[in-house]
Structure formats: C-alpha cells, structure tokens
C-alpha cells in the first residue's frame, strides 16, 4: 500500500547510488555564523578549486542585523564558478530556526547533499575536498566531521561522558555527537520532521536522533584538528543534558509511553515482516495449509510470500504500484487500485484470500470483500486482519486528550476507517462471510524495541501479553485476525467458478 519514494518526496532531489563519484554530486554548502566581519571572499577562496563544478551553490545564513551589500545574492565569486547566495531570516533567530530555514531552502533545490559548516573559519574550507570524497563513497550516510579532542581536558571529560550517555541510550557507537560540521543527504532530510525541532542549538542533536529513528547510517570522519570548547561544536553541560533527554524521549516514544511528533519519520515502506508468533503475520502464515493457493490483496512488497513459500504455498499478489521492490517469492503480481472492484484475469481458484492490515486503508471496504468472493473456492477461507482502536492504550490517550496520527501503527495516517472487534466482525459478515475463527495479537514488542522477534525476553513478554489479550480481546488485543467462509454466492462468482 506504500507509494514510490519519488512520488512521496514531491521534489527533485536525487539519492545517489552506491559508487557515486564526486563528479556526479550536487552539493549545497551552507555557512552559519558569519557576521560580516570576516573576509568572506578569502574564506570561500580556500575551498578546493576542483569542487567548483560540484557545488551547486554556497548559501550564507545571516542574522537579521548582518549587513550585506545590495545585489550580492546570486553573484559569481571572483573568477570561480561558484554561485553565492545570502539568506536573511525574518527576525533575529536562534541557531535552530536558522538551520530549519536552511533545510527548507535546500529541499527546494536539486541537491543531493547539504553541507553544514561555520562561516567564521573554525571549520577549514580546505576539508571540503575530503568531505566530498566521503559523501561519494557512502552517499546514503549522514556524515559528521569529528574533532580530535586535543585540548581542555575538563571539557574533554565532559564531552566523553555525554557521548557515552548518548551511545548507551541510542544504541550507537559514535565519538562526537556534538560537532557542528556535517553533511546530510537531502533525501533523508525530506523524510524527517525537522520543522518540529528545537529553536535552539539542540536541533543538531535532534536531527541525529531523527536519522537514527529513520535508519539512516551515520558516518564519522575525524577531520577537525580541534577539541571541545573551540566553538566547533556544542559542548556545554546544558546542551549535553538536553541532548540526553532528547534521546530518552525517543525511547519513550518507541515504547508508546509518549507520542512525540519529532520522531514520526517517513520510512517510505511502512510494512515489514514481523517474526513474532504472537503477531498477525506469523498467525496468518500458520493458518494457511501447505500446498495452498493464496490471493494476497494489498500484498505490499510481498512480505507474506517469503515465509509461505517454505510451506509450498503459491501466492498471487495484488496491490497498487510498489515499484521494483517486489519479493521474488511471489508467483504472480497484479497491479490494481483496491478502491475499485477487482478486475483480475483469475477464476475461483484460491484456497485463501488474505487481507492483512488492508481493510482500514480502503474506503470501499465492503466492495473489496465482495469482490474477493469471486476468487475463493466454495470451501475457501478469507483471512483478514486489522488493528483494534479500542486498545487500552488509545482509551487512555483519549482520556488525556491525545489522538495523533503517525506513519505506522493503529493510527497510521493512511487509515480511513478504524475498527473495534465488533465493528470489524460486522463488516466482514455484511460482505457475505461467516466468521469461523478469531485470533488476537499481542503488542508489537519487536517493533517497539527494534528487535528481530527472536529475543527470549521479548518472546516471554509477548506470550504473557498475548494470554491477557485472549482473555479480554476488546481491551488488550492489538489486532484482530478473522477467518471466515463464504455464505453468499453471487451470480458472477458462480459463473467464474464454472469456467
């Protein structure tokens, strides 16, 4: 049910492929902190000449009170082919506000990467050649140009403490979270809600946490001959504590204790195969007999085809355009908008029709289920799942006035209808089916804790919760999985079955 990334992006930014060369990059260099006193021309002259054709533009992010001569924006710098622009904020702005303005501007330009660096000379422009090489070698990575921590032992100890704290909370192994010399892929910036980040310099920490949440790799290159306290990073105790609290807030968000809009990132592909036996995917797989024929409506990339192939099940997938990400285990694939009545060149040949977490995305849900009857054998089964909006967590959320949609889960922003157990069963029955079995799922602990689903602790936790959900499904079931048989054979179904 997901769209292609380019369609979702709605812009012209490209994501370079592995093996990208420096020559193929289009990079915007954004200079921060220039106050009009330093010689900007000399600073820019220190950029390696061989990069001229690969720097799309240099953008100087100004303070409102910083004077710039008229007509300077858009000029060519000296004899070199460098386009220079000045960006004025609407008011005296904090660093976070200026960073957000820079990213907003960058996403309107045909750029592959954004380089963020100081306009005061603290970050040597000569390093840009090596930075470009690092970007070309790993184009999908965010890059931190880190410091070698040469001076001020007290500040260095403080820096190491807060770095270790961030690593522990986020599960990363970084050496310098706080450097302000960075490069970001614009494709990643487009998919994180940086507009919700702090007005202050904490934004730099929040960006890294959002990239971590999105799954964007973060690389480090120790290029700065500098240390804490020299102005090349954010090294105060207040910043370190605030960055640690921001990391904790991510973990609370992932555990659904809070709902933090900063971490509702756009993963593009919303659906992954969940390995837990208490989840909907593995329960659907276990309900299907070996050697069966399955029609998977809303198959996404064909996630269920992979485990079903091990049971010698032949899976035919149907969905809107999912691009080139289809699983090779699919036997057939038919592209169709599920809002329309099914028009498939297939007869009544399937033992099962599967609608796994699809019905909540469809406006014409009764039409879809009635269309599915045309392709089920007379003794076939519909297996259908959907989230439970009456889950205890959402009842409590409503009690405190919180009801926020996001990129995944029960309140996925693409859902057009929400179900309780009773309304879900009624929807299936109205489409000409009789429910013969109901299963429930536990909370998706493997998603919450970013696990593979094989952790013994998480399996025990999921099993205990699953027991509670079976006892009181309307309150504790995360999803309902219904198995149903046909009760009504329409004329078109009978005709197709006789072919």
Could you walk me through the main structural features you see in this protein, from its secondary elements to its overall organization?
The protein has about 500 residues and is of the alpha/beta class. The protein has 17 helices and 15 strands. It has helices spanning about 5-10, 40-45, 95-105, 130-135, 155-170, 185-190, 205-215, 235-255, 280-285, 305-310, 365-375, 390-400, 420-430, 445-450, 455-470, 475, 490-495; strands at about 25-30, 55-60, 75, 85, 115-120, 140-145, 180-185, 220-225, 295, 315-320, 330-335, 350-355, 375-385, 435-440, 480-485. The radius of gyration is 27 Å and the shape is elongated. The two termini are about 30 Å apart. The model is unreliable at about 1-20 and about 495-499 (pLDDT under 50).
Short recap of the structure:
It is built from 17 helices and 15 strands. The chain is an alpha/beta fold. Helix 5 (153-170) runs parallel beside helix 8 (237-254) and helix 7 packs parallel to helix 8 (237-254).
């Amino acid at each position: 049910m997901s769209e292609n990334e380019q369609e979702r992006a709605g812009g012209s930014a490209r994501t370079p492929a592995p093996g990208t060369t420096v020559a193929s990059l289009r990079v915007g260099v954004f200079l921060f902190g220039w106050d009009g006193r330093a010689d900007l021309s000399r600073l820019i002259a220190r950029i390696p000449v061989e990069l001229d054709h690969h720097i799309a533009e240099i953008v100087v992010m100004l303070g409102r009170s910083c004077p710039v001569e008229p007509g300077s924006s858009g000029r060519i710098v000296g004899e070199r082919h460098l386009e220079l622009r000045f960006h004025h904020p609407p008011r005296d702005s904090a660093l976070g506000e200026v960073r957000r303005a820079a990213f907003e501007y960058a996403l309107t330009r045909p750029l592959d990467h954004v380089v963020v660096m100081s306009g005061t000379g603290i970050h040597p422009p000569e390093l840009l050649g090596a930075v470009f090489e690092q970007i070309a070698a790993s184009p999908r990575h965010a890059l931190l140009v880190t410091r070698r921590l040469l001076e001020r032992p007290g500040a260095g100890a403080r820096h190491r403490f807060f770095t270790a704290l961030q690593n522990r909370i986020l599960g990363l192994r970084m050496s310098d979270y706080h450097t302000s010399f960075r490069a970001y892929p614009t494709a990643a910036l487009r998919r994180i809600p940086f507009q919700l980040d702090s007005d202050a310099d904490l934004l730099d920490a929040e960006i890294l946490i959002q990239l971590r949440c999105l799954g964007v790799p973060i690389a480090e290159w120790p290029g700065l001959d500098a240390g804490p306290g020299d102005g090349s990073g954010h090294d105060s105790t207040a910043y370190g504590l605030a960055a640690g609290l921001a990391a904790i807030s991510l973990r609370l968000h992932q555990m659904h204790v809070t709902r933090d809009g900063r971490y509702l990132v756009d993963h593009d592909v919303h659906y992954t195969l969940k390995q837990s036996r208490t989840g909907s995917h593995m329960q659907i797989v276990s309900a299907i007999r070996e050697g069966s024929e399955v029609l998977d409506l809303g198959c996404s990339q064909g996630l269920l085809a992979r485990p079903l192939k091990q049971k010698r099940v032949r899976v035919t997938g149907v969905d809107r355009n999912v691009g080139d990400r289809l699983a090779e285990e699919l036997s057939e694939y038919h592209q169709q908008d599920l809002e329309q009545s099914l028009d498939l060149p297939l007869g009544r040949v399937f033992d099962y029709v599967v609608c796994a977490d699809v019905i909540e995305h469809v406006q014409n849900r009764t039409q879809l289920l009635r269309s599915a009857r045309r392709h089920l054998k007379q003794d076939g089964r519909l297996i259908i799942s959907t989230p439970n909006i009456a889950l205890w967590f959402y009842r409590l959320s409503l009690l405190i006035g919180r009801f926020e949609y996001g990129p995944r889960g029960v309140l996925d922003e693409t859902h057009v209808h929400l179900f309780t157990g009773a309304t879900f069963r009624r929807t299936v029955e109205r489409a000409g089916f009789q429910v013969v079995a109901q299963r429930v799922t536990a909370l998706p602990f493997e998603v919450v804790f970013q696990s593979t689903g094989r952790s013994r602790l998480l399996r025990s936790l999921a099993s205990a919760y699953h027991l509670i959900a079976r006892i009181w499904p309307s309150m504790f079931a995360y999803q309902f999985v219904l198995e149903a048989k046909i009760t009504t054979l329409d004329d078109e179904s009978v005709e197709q079955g006789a072919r």
